[in-house]
Amino acid sequence: MKEIFEYYLNKCNQAMIHEDKLSFEFGNYFIEYTFTFNNIDNEDELLEDDYFSYNRINNIQEIDRLLTFDIEFQTYNIIGYEYLGWREDSEEGRSITYEMFCFIERLKKFNDSILNYDVTTEFGDPMCHDEGNYQFKIEINDNYFLNNEFAKSIIDIIKTLEISIPDFYTVFFRKKININDNKIVSVLSTNTKVRRLGYFKIMSNFFNENKKFPASIINKKFEDYCSEYKNELEDNSFKKGLIIKTKSGVSAKPYIDTALDINLLSKVNNVFNVGKSFKVYQNLKNKYSNSNNIFELTDFDKVYFLECILKNDFFYFSNLLELFFLNRKTTYLILVKKYQAQLILRLEDYKRQNIYDNRKVLKNIDVILKRINNWEKAEVYLEHIIMPRINWMLDFDLLTSINNEFILTEKGLKLFKHLCVWNDINTDKIISSDSFIDRFMIHTFDDCYKCNHGENLIDRKIIIEKIYYYIDSSFDLFKTLAPNRVTASQAANYTKYKLYLDDNIKVGYQFILGELSEKEQDKFVFKYQEQYQDGYIQRKK
Fold first, then answer.
1. β-strand partners of 529
2. Can you list the alpha helix ranges (DSSP code H) found in 455-508?
3. For the residues of 57-123, what is the DSSP string, one character each?
4. The pTM is what?
5. DSSP readout, 415-448?
6. Which residues neighbour 24 within 8 Å (Cβ) at sequence distance 6 or greater?
7. For the chain, what is the mean pLDDT?
8. Backbone phi, then psi, for 357, in 5-degree steps?
9. How far apart, in whole angstroms, are the C-alpha atoms of residue 510 and residue 524?
10. pLDDT tens string 162-210
């Protein structure tokens, strides 16, 4: 191993032996070897020697001395770290999670080189004030301990890895603002049939013409309604997921079920109605959802439906996105082989990081983990999970397909990066994305689809005035039984989309509610009702 050690020694900023570790430091990255002694009775006494206590290595001869001992190297790790105490003085954020995945993806060319990987916060002496190192660790297969090409690749990655974080995240890093995560794993049960998001655009038209439908007839009625769009699907770039006419409406049922699950529809007393958020979509679609082919998604369609899916299907969707990132060019069959294990691994991670959390969180994780572990004929069942999401990603232009191989587009790569940053803000694996979406959805979409990663250039006062204007306009669109009252989620989401689509102003849903909560503002009364996870807004008289 001397040759490898000498190579790292010549390239690193400094090298050190401490206790059972030999490490090579490259700025914010380490290459670390751990070792054990063989046939030594007084190992503790040996480790008290100055040679094994923060001993800075200056030449290969000092490493030679280590190799004279009867030692066995146990692990070979790549570590990237960020001292959390530096965040408040940093001019920009840093994504430890995304850096880790970039290392892994670039090392994939070395087959089976990665054993494990994880992101954790490590603390030093408990008697000292220590904010901890937020770090990733990638454990390397021992087959690559002596591989020169592998060592050179690591150094090449360290030298060339340049990752910038969008400016709008900076304040959350500097002020160490943790975003609420209710830690509820959201999973969406789907049928392989539900492949075209354009059918939800058609569903909006369907409910515009008839405000409600009994459960006994909705599937057949929607099936008949969709028949006139058959040719448009055939002309679309992606043709899978066709709704055909049947006697019972069974072809449309999977789309109706999914619409209910992602809250586009509500069902009360066996009658289907338009959900709260879908009413916002309906009020905006005539202006912002027009396309040559109804199955082609406009920017408004994409940001609206992507938000719906990320909120209700974050677990399945984000883990599939991760597999696409790590396997830049992959096939459906490869995904089927890896996806179940990926989901189980992530749920086990959730359990470890929440071991001391409340029972409700752990019970939710255990229920889903048991369900996935017990999948019979997983390769058959996974078609109903993977195929719809692949096709949604195609509709969103997050993915492209060439000769049955799938590749993330630049938009898909950027979206994955944003999801990594969300983890880094909280220095924890995000389980529920709701609060992140409420803050960052418009900013995230704008960066992914428009390459705009900066803050708004418009004066804050003008932004607030426009918020008040659109909130006021919403009273005419979303009437409630109570006079002078509008549902907060509808008014705020309507305002969010109008600001972005008409004024190119990026604000989050939560930002709008925050402004309405300000005591100084004299336009509206905003009341949040915890039991409904929503609220109402009234004009001040």
1. 534
2. 460-474, 488-503
3. E-SHHHHHHHHHS-EEEEEEEEEEEEEGGGGGG-SS---HHHHHHHHHHHHTTSTT-EEEEEEEEE-
4. 0.94
5. HHHHHHHHHHHHTS--S--HHHHHHHHHHHHHHH
6. 8, 9, 11, 12, 14, 15, 30, 31, 32
7. 93
8. -80, 180
9. 16
10. 899 999 999 999 999 999 999 999 899 999 999 999 999 999 999 999 8
